[in-house]
Design goal:
Distance between the termini of chain B: 35 Å
Radius of gyration of chain A: 13 Å
Order of helices and strands of chain B: EEEEEEEEEEE
Shape of chain B: globular
Number of helices of chain A: 0
Largest sheet of chain A: 7 strands, mixed
Distance between the termini of chain A: 40 Å
Largest interface: A-B, 22 and 23 residues
Helix content of chain A: under 10%
Helix content of chain B: under 10%
Oligomer: heterodimer
Number of helices of chain B: 0
Structural class of chain B: mainly beta
Chain lengths: 122, 107
């Protein structure tokens, strides 16, 4: 059974940093692109960042470029999102998601984690 | 970025109704489009990929069509479980984008 479990969310002041983790199981982690997405409660979905199966050519939304870094650890089957210089507008539920098609960077996202809330406030 | 525009934003319907949601892309995206269902407090669920391919386990009352810039999600006979918010997502570019969502409410 595919499982994605996020952790690392919480409350943080503007300008500070936070690192989210997403522990993956139930599939061959090394063969799938992975992404982070976010959603302000009650609002729509926003893509944040994506990393291909081989970690080559990562991509970021303009809103987080230069502040967030996506990475993956195949030994621990974990996806990360390092978030620096956080802003109030980064407040949202953050989801990790698995790409449907093997060896593709992007496709539909067929499995999602349960989400972790990040609150940026002074 | 490719902008995705969904309509309507809200849709009131009854059990058994046929429901259609439209998604328009600002640029040609071929068939690189997915549809999701999201229930309150839950993560989105992938229903359809590549514009018209049904995910395994998704009921056949859901169908997708379209290519280029105009796409539709159709629910042939609305069931109680289907009252939720639906999103389209383009993946023609590495920077994927979503429509703003369509909330399907009970009439």
């Amino acid at each position: 059974e595919v499982q994605l479990v996020e952790s690392g969310g919480g409350w943080v002041q503007p300008g500070r940093s936070l690192r989210l983790s997403c522990a993956a199981s139930g599939f061959t982690f090394d063969n799938f692109g992975m992404h982070w997405l976010r959603q302000i409660p009650g609002k729509g979905l926003e893509w944040v960042a994506g990393i291909p199966w081989n970690s080559y050519s990562v991509n970021y939304a303009d809103s987080v470029k230069g502040r967030f870094t996506i990475s993956r650890d195949s030994a621990n089957k974990t996806l990360y999102l390092q978030m620096n210089n956080l802003k109030v507008e980064d407040t949202a539920f953050y989801y990790c998601a698995k790409v449907r098609a093997e060896l593709d960077l992007i496709d539909g996202f067929d499995f999602w984690g349960q989400g972790t809330m990040v609150t940026v406030s002074s | 970025d490719v902008q995705m525009t969904q309509s309507p934003s809200t849709l009131s319907a009854s059990v058994g109704d046929r429901v259609t949601i439209t998604c328009r892309a600002s640029h040609h995206i071929y068939s690189w489009l997915a549809w999701y269902q999201q229930r309150p407090g839950k993560a989105p669920k992938l229903l359809i990929y590549r514009a018209s391919s049904l995910m395994s386990g998704v009921p056949s009352r859901f169908s997708g069509s379209g290519s280029g810039t105009e796409f539709t999600l159709t629910i042939s006979s609305l069931q109680p479980d289907d009252f939720a918010t639906y999103y389209c997502q383009q993946y023609n570019t590495a920077s994927v984008t979503f429509g703003q969502g369509t909330k399907v409410e009970i009439k």
